[in-house]
């Protein structure tokens, strides 16, 4: 199996590359500045020069949630137009596309875990641009698997775990939002299941559509922070000794967040034969690799 990994320098892209290496999958990774999904010629150049491929995985995205409120044009160019360009190229080169999306396509007003078929209603520019990207992929390329995920953290790039570790070394007291609930997801776990799904599709398990995948533990940001500090103390010295829960209104941000964005992953797990790990398992693995 030969894969095209798009956005290989990002948080998820680096884990996709590392896991593909471990599995001995042939792959080509592309990212800025040499590869630009908003430029059709850039995409087709890679297809011609490095293909043929068996599948493409798109981990490239504009993910700066707050900055997107002031940079809508850029967010839509990458998350919508870029997705459409990739889908169009995949159509021309007869490739299935695995496209990563987000829980931010939902408004967070549900009382139950969101299923892939539930109506979407994004609250901000980031969610709107990702929802538009999903639609672009569906409209252009029938042979797609869209996987929405949530609260991504991992060894690479910037994420909540690394932010908390940095703050925990310099602050004795922290205040963390406690009225937003979701499922923190380890990028390495997401990479594993994406590669498993890609392999299944290449082998003929062509069950196209939209799915969800996240780690299975439901937490608030406050509860997640507490777990991070509790587990990290086995590996490093932290200054923080008091963490207080606050409401979203006490920590205003440019982009409104969904208050509840728990994802129902049943259909993805059953279709592709994968499981969800607990957040603690994944977090312990990350902290041991990062700090051990």
Chain-wise SSE layout:
Elements: E1 2-6, H1 11-22, E2 26-30, H2 40-50, E3 55-58, H3 72-92, E4 97-102, H4 125-140, E5 144-149, E6 152-153, H5 160-170, E7 173-177, E8 181-182, E9 185-186, H6 187-202, E10 209-212, E11 219-220, H7 221-232, E12 242-246, H8 266-272, H9 279-291
Parallel strand pairs: 1-2, 1-3, 3-4, 4-5, 5-10, 6-9, 7-12
Antiparallel strand pairs: 8-11
Helix pairs in contact: 1-6, 2-3, 3-4, 5-7, 7-9
Globally, the shape reads: globular
**Main pleated-sheet profile:** 6 strands, parallel
Low-confidence stretches: none
Question: Helical proportion?
Answer: 40-55%
> What's the mean pLDDT score?
96
Secondary-structure element string: EHEHEHEHEEHEEEHEEHEHH
Strand order of the largest sheet: 2-1-3-4-5-10
How many runs of DSSP E, i.e. beta strands? 12
Q: What's the quaternary structure here?
A: single chain
Radius of gyration: 19 Å
- Structural class by SSE content: alpha/beta
Question: Kindly, what is the distance between the CA atoms of the first and last residues, rounded to a whole number of angstroms?
Answer: 34 Å
What is the tally of helical segments?
Answer: 9
Strand content: 15-25%
């Amino acid at each position: 199996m030969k894969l095209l990994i798009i956005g290989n320098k990002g948080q998820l892209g680096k884990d996709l590359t590392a896991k593909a290496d471990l599995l001995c999958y042939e792959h080509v990774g592309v990212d800025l500045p040499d590869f630009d999904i908003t430029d059709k010629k850039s995409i087709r150049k890679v297809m011609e020069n490095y293909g043929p491929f068996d599948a493409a995985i798109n981990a490239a995205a504009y993910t700066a949630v707050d900055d997107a409120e002031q940079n809508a044009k850029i967010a839509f160019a990458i998350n919508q137009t870029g997705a459409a360009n990739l889908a169009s190229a995949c159509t021309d080169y007869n490739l299935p596309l695995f496209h990563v999306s987000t829980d931010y396509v939902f408004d967070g007003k549900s009382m139950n875990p969101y299923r892939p078929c539930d109506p979407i209603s994004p609250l901000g520019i980031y969610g709107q641009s990702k929802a538009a990207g999903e639609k672009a992929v569906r409209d252009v390329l029938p042979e797609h698997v869209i996987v929405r995920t949530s609260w991504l953290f991992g060894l690479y790039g910037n994420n909540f775990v690394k932010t908390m570790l940095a703050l925990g070394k310099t602050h004795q007291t922290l205040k963390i939002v406690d009225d937003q609930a979701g499922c923190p997801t380890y990028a390495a776990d997401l990479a594993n299941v994406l590669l498993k799904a890609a392999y299944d599709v290449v082998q003929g398990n062509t069950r196209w559509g939209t799915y969800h995948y996240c780690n299975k533990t439901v937490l608030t940001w406050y509860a997640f922070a507490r777990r991070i500090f509790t587990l990290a103390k086995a590996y490093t010295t932290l200054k923080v000794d008091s963490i207080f829960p606050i409401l979203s209104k006490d920590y205003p941000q440019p982009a409104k967040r969904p208050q509840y964005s728990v994802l129902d992953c049943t259909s993805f797990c059953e279709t592709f034969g994968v499981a969800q790990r607990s957040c603690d398992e994944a977090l312990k693995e990350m902290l041991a690799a990062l700090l051990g």
